[in-house]
Amino acid sequence: MSPLSRSTSIGLVSALLALLAACSAPSSRVDREPVEALASNALGRPVAWPEERDARVALERELDALLAEPLEVDGAVRIALYRNESLRAELARLGVDAAELARSHTLANPSLSASLRFERGTEGVGVPEFALTRNLLDLFMRPARVELAADALTRARIELVQTVVQHAFAARDAYFRARAARHLLAVETLATEAADVGFELMRRLHDAGNASERELALEEAAAQNARVALSQAAEASDAAREALNRELGLWGADAQRWTVPETLPSLDDSAPPAANLEAYALTHRLDLRAAIAHADGLAASLGFERRWSALSFLGVGIVGERDGGEWSFGPEIELELPIFDRGEARVAELRAELEASEHELAARAIAIRSEVREAERHRQHALARARHFRERIVPAQQRVLDATQKEFNFMLVGAFELLDAKRAELEASRGAIEALRDAWLADSELARVLGAPLPGATPPEPPATTDGHDDAHAEHDHGG
Amino acid sequence: MLDRRHFLFSTGAAGAIGAAGVLGSAATSAQATDGGAAPLAPSLRRPGAGYVPVVTPNGSTLAWTLEDGVKVFRLSAEPVEREFAPGMKVRALGYNGESPGPTIECVQGDRVRILVTNRLGEHTTVHWHGIRLPNGMDGVGGLNQPHIKPGETWAYEFVVRDAGTFMYHPHADEMVQMALGLMGMFIVHPREEDEPVDRDFVLLPHAWAVHPGTYRPDPSVMNDFNLFTFNGKVFPATEPLVVRTGERVRLRLGNLSMDSHPIHLHGYSFDVTATDGGRIAKSARWPQTTVNVPVGSTRDIEWTADAPGDWALHCHKSHHTMNAMGHGIPNLMGVDVSAQGAKRSVEERLRALVPGYMTMGIEGMAEHAVHAEHMPGPPNTLPMMAGRGPFGPLEMGGMFTVVKVRDELVPGVDPGWYERPPGTSAWRVG
Ligand SMILES: [Cu+2]
After folding, report:
1. Which of A129, A344, B232, B269 counts the most CB atoms within 10 A of its CB?
2. A415 and chain B: CB distance < 8 Å anywhere?
């Protein structure tokens, strides 16, 4: 029973109630801004998913306009970001993790116990009694829990952005493949026409009595073979188109109406290889940031557990008792005695997990460095091959064609040699297109491995992983 | 026996000699004058003047010096650049800067010493084709003498016993050295000319393989020669043979190529008067208009140029009167390249792929001569037919030249195209 006077009791109760209620729960709305910031950095372009109706209508109109014109790569990525339903599903899933964060800000609810105490000789009327208890440990734990939940949210966001980035890169790659496939189909169409007109010319020679059955059959075989190659190129172009449709989330009329320009864009390969790409990747790679968040969360948990390992329950509360029409209140404290479980096992477990996460972090960083080197070399080789085709092979074949034309002019060679030279030139163009496509893919691959666009053109700021507490992590240089 | 005039003529046209006769071999080629005697000069026959010097169109006669009664000639075997015609220069081999080398000219009974310097990258020799001489002077490397190594100079010395038309050429790595142009003519005049002439021309035809777009003859080609020269020139760069009406003309032809050349002269009948074996008895001659010059032989033909005009002189193998042409090109004669009901003709479809395409040869190839004038060909390559006359394209190349017979000649002035008297030309009747 409480020894306190009523008035003082009431004051204390107010304070305790305030304590019990001490949980400023954050808004539970899905906050996309950090995700958009991360995605913008990773993609090197502004990314936002507007929620307001007007903005969405405007966006849809803009996407429609993009589909009406020959599609450029930025437009394709933009369409994918808004129309790819898998991507939107991931984005929606972020709400689940945000709800988790909201929960972490709330303290455990206080427990209320009530009883009627029947005392002998009290005419059958029970003495009501209650206790409102709040686990105080939960309150002390709160900063750590918030930290843990924030880290979890950070990781969730990062994972989401990684998915977004993957979709964006997949759309970009599909775009270049589709554009290259269209260009290759155009080249194959010309090559087929060259074989076809060769056959036709030979047919005319044969009709005039100037060519043998054998010569005619040889030309026909070549022309019919060329048609197979054309069919394959057309199929590849169809497949590449459909792959891009999937990445862009297009169907129905939208899937039919878009076009890409006829040729692949040239890729600026004049810049020297960027320096310090490995460090650049370590500050931008999202999987590394997720690993850092994980390790930090574990470190926070461990710190808490170390301080409070002996206690698993520390309750404070008020008890009330009505005694003969008078309520009397008094404080209550409840404590779990750490006799059997002193919490060492939990600390040891966390310590091991933390150590493991630090090694995983280092392993990730080392792997990233290697991936960067590989992707950078891959890009350089691919660019060199594309340049070699553009500056050496194609011009050489064009010179062959020019020289053949000059020999043709002087009746040193005939139309069939001229067509052969044309076909060889087309073959070189085919190689050049494939090499340029591969260079674009290698360029994307490096950006993907770096976690951000190549430094140089528009250097993005290192991303802020969470609201508020900005990166001390970025200064860590793990691995290597 | 060698009077002053003889000496003058032997070294070239008047005014061109100066100190040439006593200069060393390096200066010799520079002093050799184009064509030997001036080609447009009036008749060179002078009573009692010895011989009429030969004219080598597009070539020269080798100068000599007299040393102790020996006529000393100097030949330098060396790389030369020979312009076959404007637009084509060939990296050939020759003597004294020329291919063919300068014509050696002397008189029966002369003692000659020929100093041969090898400025090639490999050994060589010189064989005096058709000339009777001591065995050790015959010039077959390995058989009659050691080879002349690069940088060495060797002397050949002999008395020329026979008059006639002879040749000289290497007898060492012959296939390469002759394919690249090492050869020349060796003319021996008789002491007394039984059948004197007013004009004495020397032509050495040759067949070459210079692949289109290249500069150097390909010595590995044995059959598919694609360029055919008279004295290292193809028509229209061949100099005409200019003659005054009524003159007695001799044309000396040699052949060191791998193919025979039936040389045909328009407008006349001629006699083959000599081979490299000597003069043919008059009773054994029969009139001809074409003389086949076999491989490794010479032929002299003689006629009286009594018909003024521009008379063609050419090899009668038609592929020898044209320049390089593809032998594997499709035969388009009579081929229909029209649309035949399709949207586009074969020609249009080809042009869409290769804008420079142009159908040639459906009705014949004469149009080519005109096309070739405005369509670029490979570098250093001549169109297969070229040359223009007073009536348009001549559609010739290779071994083709013109004998210009005129009533009046102005020394040093090209007589131009012949003006046919009225009523003496073909006319259109339909
Ligand atoms: Cu011939």
Report:
1. B232
2. yes
A122: pLDDT strictly greater than 60: no
Contact call for A205 and B330, based on CB within 8 A: yes
Cβ pair B336:A208 closer than 8 A: yes
- List A residues 174-193 in contact with B (Cβ-Cβ < 8 A): 190, 193
- Whether residue B31 lies inside any domain: the answer is yes
Answer whether residue B395 is part of any domain.
Answer: no
Residue A469 has pLDDT above 60, yes or no: no
Chain B residue nearest residue A416, CA to CA: B330
What does the pLDDT average to over B318-346? 91
Q: Please report how the helices A213-248 and A136-207 are oriented relative to each other, as an axis angle in degrees rounded to 10.
A: 160
ipTM over 0.85: no
Domain regions of chain A by residue span: 36-477
Distance CA A410, CA A200 (A): 23
Domain count, chain B: 1
CATH topology for A36-477 is Outer membrane efflux proteins (OEP) (1.20.1600)
Residue-range definition of the domain harbouring residue B168: 27-195
Contact B343, A196 (CB under 8 A): no
CATH value at residue B72: 2.60.40.420
Q: What is the pLDDT of residues B304-317, one digit of tens each?
A: 999 999 999 999 99
Give A54-95 pLDDT, tens digit per residue.
988 999 999 999 999 999 999 999 999 999 888 888 888 777
List, in order, residues 6 or more apart from B338 with CB less than 8 Å away. Answer: B345, B346
pLDDT averaged over chain B?
88
Alpha carbon distance A62, A89 (integer Å)? 22
Q: Is B375 a member of any domain?
A: no
- Contact across the interface for B353 and A197, Cβ inside 8 Å: yes
Q: In the beta sheet, which residues pair with residue B148?
A: B124
Give per-residue burial for A400-419: e unless 16+ CB within 10 Å, then b.
bbbbbbbbbbbbbbbbbbbb
Taking the model in full, what pTM does it have?
0.78
Instruction: Indicate the SS3 state at residue A473.
Output: helix
Report the pLDDT value the prediction gives residue A105, as an integer from 0 to 100: 61
Over range B162-186, report the average pLDDT.
97
| Any domain includes B47 | yes
A334 neighbors A248 (Cβ within 8 angstroms): no
Would an 8 Å CB–CB cutoff place B295 in contact with chain A? no
